[in-house]
Amino acid sequence: MNIFVLGGDGFCGWPTSLHLSELGNDVTIVDNLCRRRIDRELGIDSLTPISDIHERIDCWREVSGQEIQFLNIDLSSDYAAFLQALKSNHPDVIVHFGEQRSAPYSMKNSLTNRFTIQNNLVGTNNICSAIVESGIDAHLIHLGTMGVYGYGTAGLEIPEGYLNLELGGSDDMEILYPANPGSIYHMSKCQDQLFFLFYNKNYQLRITDLHQGIVWGTQTNLTRLNEKLINRFDYDGDYGTVLNRFLTQAAIGHPLTVHGTGGQTRAFIHITDTVQCIEIAMRNPPEKHARVKIYNQMTETHRVRGLAKLVAGMTGAEISFLQNPRKEADENDLEVSNECFLTEGLEPTRLAEGLLSEVIEISQRYAERIDIEKIPCASFW
Ligand code: NAD
Ligand code: USQ
Q1: What is the number of the ligand 1 atom nearest to the C-alpha of 123?
Q2: 189 is catalytic
Q3: 268: containing domain
Q4: Is 108 a catalytic residue?
Q5: Burial of 353 by CB count in 10 Å (0-12 exposed, 13-18 middle, 19+ buried)?
Q6: Is residue 379 part of a domain?
Q7: Mean pLDDT over residues 232-236, rounded?
Q8: 168 pLDDT above the threshold of 80
Q9: Which pTM was predicted?
Q10: Which listed ligand is nearest to 81 at the C-alpha?
Q11: Ligand nearest the Cα atom of residue 245
């Protein structure tokens, strides 16, 4: 198959591109490298020394004999170039990872707020509009977030995207699960859902929206093949996510930074399962006139303080309970259905000491690259 991976230079996009290429697909990465620019803007860097995109692709060709194409296009501002790329390449599948994905970054100030909205919403609309204008029949697979559902205690198992309502009349009604975003970033993902509903209803676009939980881990079997293929790893206060941060902090003897009571429950998935899920979604496209297909892309839920205790138990790290920099519930329960992926063959990678230790080892290997000043959260709301 001919596949476009939008945001294919990022943490989830790079290992996915390698996996899809290894399966024999023609992969084109579309990325404007804005994430590398944001690293420079914030004075941060991936814990792992990620190679330049061209070095990555050259190394992959040497290691695998497979070619990955690269197009430097800004999805939010260079519509004409993206449209032309669709018309020339006719991709069968477009995997959309190309958004600003940090909640703290989106809440830093009005510039980062407006950048997130401009980048994510205009980008998503451009992608949908270009599919319509080019006349191709590509399956669009978007990486959304579990955060669209919000993090109050729902009192029910969160379904996969839709709620059935009994209205008392003759017809029941199916609606998108009510959106409840906790940051500008999460709000952009809620609004993405409406673009998908609209383009699906009006133009019969075939769309799968993956409501993904927090991704942890860093390497896959393919990014391990050569140091030039190594994946990104964020540990800083804006882009680092909770479990990866705790593992890095433990590796260098820094107290684990629990926000508030640590009673927040969140959904998690390992990076190798992210990659598998994209392959599964690709193999199971929605029919032409079917509604947007929504999967909850997560494998387990954990409370933040439970994760801190687990990591502290393995490593002897101290736990610091800090004033929560975010406006979020101190404690919540979370039950989530992930039946779609389980039915379609996902074998979940669970939190296991071996995998946790692997992240600690990587953190120790590159410890000299860690800037301790960048660990605390620098965004408050
Ligand atoms: P990332 O920041 O590492 O990668 C995103 C990539 O998209 C970057 O390479 C960036 O340069 C590119 N990009 C962003 N805006 C672009 C634009 N306008 N034009 C072209 N390229 C653009 O992020 P990630 O962690 O790989 O996340 C990928 C997707 O998965 C995001 O949409 C995110 O919301 C979603 N997601 C991530 C996680 C997680 O824990 N990392 C969890 C749930 C959902
Ligand atoms: N947290 C801590 N200590 C830390 C960092 C975070 O206690 O050092 C807490 C946060 O306050 C929050 C929880 O851990 O309660 C999760 O925070 P996070 O930074 O790991 O995740 P989040 O901001 O929700 O965002 C990440 C990704 C985002 C994705 C989302 C999936 O950056 O792209 O959409 O996870 S989800 O959380 O399911 O919405």
Answers
A1: 18
A2: yes
A3: 2-374
A4: no
A5: exposed
A6: no
A7: 98
A8: no
A9: 0.98
A10: 1
A11: 2
Please indicate, yes or no, if residue 315 is contained in any of the structural domains. yes
- Please state, in angstroms and rounded to a whole number, the distance separating the CA atoms of residues 284 and 330: 38
User: Is 381 part of any domain?
Assistant: no
How many domains, the chain? 1
Ligand 1 mean position to 232 CA, how many Å? 11
Token pair 């996996």 is found at 19
Q: For ligand 2, is residue 213 a contact (CB within 6 Å)?
A: yes
CATH number of the domain that residue 303 is part of: 3.40.50.720
- pLDDT tens digit string along 28-76? 999 999 999 999 999 999 999 999 999 999 999 999 999 999 999 999 9
Q: Is the CB of 102 under 6 A from ligand 2?
A: yes
The residue whose CA is least distant from atom 38 of ligand 2 is 213
Q: What tokens does 315 get?
A: 């490593």
**Three-state secondary structure string covering the chain:** CEEEEECCCCCCHHHHHHHHHHCCCEEEEECCCHHHHHHHHHCCCCCCCCCCHHHHHHHHHHHHCCCEEEECCCCCCCHHHHHHHHHHHCCCEEEECCCCCCHHHHCCCHHHHHHHHHHHHHHHHHHHHHHHHHCCCCEEEEEEEHHHHCCCCCCCCECCCEEEECCCCCCCEEEECCCCCCCHHHHHHHHHHHHHHHHHHHHCCEEEEEEECEEECCCCCCHHHCHHHCCCCCCCCCCCCHHHHHHHHHHCCCCEEEECCCECEEEEEEHHHHHHHHHHHHHCCCCCCCCCEEEEECCEEEEHHHHHHHHHHHHCCCEEEECCCCCCCCECCCCECCHHHHHCCCCCCCCCHHHHHHHHHHHHHCHHHCCHHHCCCCCCC
Q: Hey, which of 96, 101, 106, 145 would you mutate to test ligand 2's pocket, going by the most ligand atoms within 8 Å of its Cβ? A: 145
Assigned domain for 345 exists: yes
For residue 116, report the distance from its CA to the centre of ligand 1, in Å. Answer: 11
Of all atoms in ligand 2, which is nearest to the CA of residue 213? 38
The residue from 145, 218, 220, 248 that is catalytic is: 145
Residue whose CB lies within 8 A of the most ligand 1 atoms, among 99, 230, 270, for a mutation test? 99
Pairing of strands 206-212, 293-297: parallel
